Amino acid sequence: MNEPIRRLSMLAALLFTALLVSSTWLQVVGAEAINDRPDNRRTALKNYGQERGQILLGGQPIARSVPSDDELQWQRVYASPETYAHITGYYSFEYGAGGGLEGAANSLLSGTDDTLFYGRVSDILSGKASKGASLELTIDPQAQRAAKEALGDQRGAVVAMDPRTGAILAMYSSPTYSPTPLVSHEQGTAAKAWESLNADSSRPLVNRAIGGNLYPPGSVFKVVTAAAAIESGDYDESSSIPGPAVLDLPQTDVGLPNSHPGACGPNDRVTLAVAMQDSCNTAFGWLGMELGGDTVGDQASKFGFGDKLEIPMDVTPSTFPTGLNPPQEAQSAIGQYDVRVTPLQVAMMSSAVANDGVVMRPYVVERVQGDDLSVISDTKPEQLSRAIDPETAAELTDMMKLVVERGTGTQAAVPGTSVAGKTGTAEHAEGAAPHAWFTGFAPADNPKVAVAVVVEDGGRAGNEAYGGSVAGPISAAVMKAVLE
Hints:
- The mean pLDDT is about 90.
- The chain has a six-stranded mixed sheet. Strands 8-7-21-20-19 form a five-stranded antiparallel sheet.
- The radius of gyration is 27 Å and the shape is globular.
- The protein has 18 helices and 21 strands.
- By secondary structure, the protein is of the alpha+beta class.
């Protein structure tokens, strides 16, 4: 064989080898990745060829699939879509599964999860059509509706939890949206809705309760600072601490003022309990410098700051800054500077105080069920951390009760029950109205619900907003819905 023919033969052999390797790679190694591509039409059509699992509240579906008369075979439909949009999310032929449980629990709902393997085998052997698993949620429909109605057209979020278990009873983010147009089988309808939602400057697709651009917590963070002070052993609720009209800060000519004129007590001193009751900035700023940023930051981490959580939707970790100088320590101790939180994290703070100092892992799926209603798995309540001692929790409860009984949070009261809480008014941008916050739990002596509310830019009150007057009544409405 002459040299040119030998070279041509070697080239042909190499090309055949490359073709064999690439086809083997695609069919064996890369198959899963290709199947999972959102633009793989064949996989999408296959997924629409079997019934997707339901998302249930009290056995009633808020998301389900019904037969369709087009090539997709099944159409996803949502009950009260705007009320539950950020919980259900959407399952769209054009844009995939996302925005809530449809994305976070897609493998269960689609029936492809490993835990459903034996069920799939049984269906194949029996000739039965496979279906996805259904999810029974922890959400209390009355609490969810109360959150939506009370927040109204104001931007913000509401989270309610059972502090004893971590079960999420309400999670509402505003503005909301309807997933119905996104799941339309009419390509133009879905595309128009997608473009409109993504172009909306109010970001309706963002679940503000667990993510997005996190919020400065303002004075609701004083719960953490007070906890750090009591846990240090150097302070209790009756400790007398400085509470002047303006706190002098080292290294700067700018002082830290109170939100109200004047000092927090006679002779510029105040007890820790009254400082909490009246939300005294100067007292808590002084505490922040005395304790130090590391101590307050460590206490925040015990409440869950920095933890990456899945409920099963991903929760953006809340943050407390490090490497602080004294003025930054004072600002951070009152929930300003670079402290950032989700409303879920704030609800977890109140839940820990309500639960004798124990933080429970939050969750929104109560159980996973087969199509025959058999229970595939139950969520067991799980302790995430111990934030504070029971004795500290009892002192904080007493102090937070004063906030609602005679302090800044009187508008968060619920008739017929005792409420413990904390207000917050958080500055976040020069010239912008402050965010209004409230967090608390009830009944204070036997807690069954903990709530966190944030209303962006003061809501309808604008620059006149205070946490107690704007967010307090929203919390009261949700607590009342749960307790009744």
